[in-house]
């Protein structure tokens, strides 16, 4: 048996308060403040979740629904670069219209209770041409990203334009702006960062938190900017033949090291200067760029799986993060430039060639709003933070006695505890990309507390499966009942049938057990099948549960309250949403996209008959477009099924117009990395296909994706001669949103697809390919995927 032991030290001294020059507007009802270890809001510990969504990379008509998807996914703050070149590509013509309407986007965040974090640059990176600086600015005789007056003068004008758009949206006026990021990844100019903050404030910008990215040993200007960290499961900016970077590998270990010297290392010296150790004692651990996915460059095309994203995110909570910030949470599409393309490329002096249009980033919500498995995985964690983040945020991260010997140790179990000295949460990560970690049989955990008796769990040794990651509660109080421990992850609470129901998620391969403090309960009723409640050493141990919607343990508390413990199986737990629906907070179980919007719940589903379960059930019947919804029992939930009507998935008719010619000879550019083939090869060598759009889809393009399975090097889609979508091959499917195509006759004419083959000796990294067959250009399968939006109301 492997007994993993952790000794919790005595509680630390109270955090520093009032020591930073960061303060909220006077008189706001829920003031934001920063201690040396966590953030507070309204005097209560606060654990935000932010997600990056670039408004200028998404059609304005879709913003509201996509923001509601992010909110339903547990995001509480929306971060967005304000990309200068997107707004002022032509000097003096500053555009905040249409898809560039910053004020409208911030207002939509406010309307739906989402905080807003503008990252105002002026240099953003964001895989944008010149890092977001306009070409006309770089043509001037000035030194960008310094205090050169010739540079600061147009920056001052730009900040003034941004401030005018955000006027009245600050906290003093009830607005959503909780933080403003200055610059990005500027590692050696602390004085310039201070100047930029001053210029932004003089322009009228205001926020309780002013932030800066802090990876790579950044030198910050004293304590004027809150340092923000990141970590990605993969990287496109490393070398094609470099393997999985150690700077990515490190994020699947529990450590107290905040910095990541790998992010952006292709744009700065590789020598890490080292973070000021004093900073970790004066600032909380805040993140803004946990990898929600990863972009693909021409020379390196990583694939990021849902488990990679989720394991990294959960690990960071266990390490001590008090703000989960994801980049990207929602993918996007680069706007077409008026003068040139707007992506990062070798042509602009960058070491990476990026697609002209696609900035999908393999994000939890895709370029066209696709709901991906990583969205469901992260939402499960965000539900935990929404329910218990105020308890987790002040808790210290403690590491076990036996630690991995290094970043290549795959045999030592990786775990940690967040604790206040007597209770806490136990985190385990047994997943990492590329190199699977082994099962850990015969495992128990012992946590020795200084202010309470030790806990050993589970009651009998278990096998921690390869690929698993989870969080278990330690002495969690739930409405008068103390859950001493559980071998299942807390999800959320909901009020149903006069009781508080704690929803938990089982881990595949580990039988769930619940240990209740016997002094806090008077009766425990388990499901009639298999479940047992046994008194053991002052606890009531519940075993034999079969996880699912009927695995409800009913508890009467000693104080007279009633509590339910609902243990969902792992798959069902990943369908859980919690939100205000039909007049009350409810648990909604649905494997598709769900948004909560006033008195309406909308389902985004490709299914012909989508279904969802609800706890507690609404007091009146549910209807969709005037039709009642079919209803049946599903354990303690009520399941509803919407009637048929969706178009469903249908094969797409694809015609080969011209076969591919020989692959172009590889060409290298900046830093000797492979460069994207010139456009002339796409015109002359690429295979060409025609895709005809069915008439019924032309009439109703909303929610319709053309999904292509293809091989080759790069692919581009055109309507007429207009480029509408592109992708580098990485083994992923290629989605193209029909409603993003030019409207009218041009859409009806269909699409032209051009697919280029890849030379056998091209120095590019494509994961998972072991033969040369994939290098040939071809579309193997294509289908139309129709996602319908079902608006569900009470009758």
Proportion of beta-strand residues: 25-35%
Shape: globular
Separation, N- and C-terminal Cα atoms: 57 Å
- The residue ranges in which pLDDT falls below 50 over 5 or more consecutive positions are none
Let me know the average pLDDT. Answer: 95
Task: Describe the protein's architecture and organization.
The protein is α+β, with helices and mostly antiparallel strands. Helices cover 15% and strands 32% of the residues. It has 14 helices and 48 strands. The chain has an eight-stranded parallel beta sheet, with helices on one face. An eight-stranded antiparallel beta sheet has the order 15-16-17-20-21-24-27-26, covered by helices on one side. A hairpin with a 2-residue loop joins strand 35 and strand 36 (627-628). Helix 5 (149-165) packs across helix 6. The mean pLDDT is 95. Belongs to the glycosyl hydrolase 35 family. It comes from Streptomyces purpurascens. Residues 1-24 are annotated as: Disordered. This is Beta-galactosidase. Residues 40-380 form the Glycoside hydrolase 35 catalytic domain.
Summarize the entry for a quick read.
Belongs to the glycosyl hydrolase 35 family. Helices cover 15% and strands 32% of the residues.
Which keywords apply here?
795 residues, alpha+beta, eight-stranded parallel β-sheet
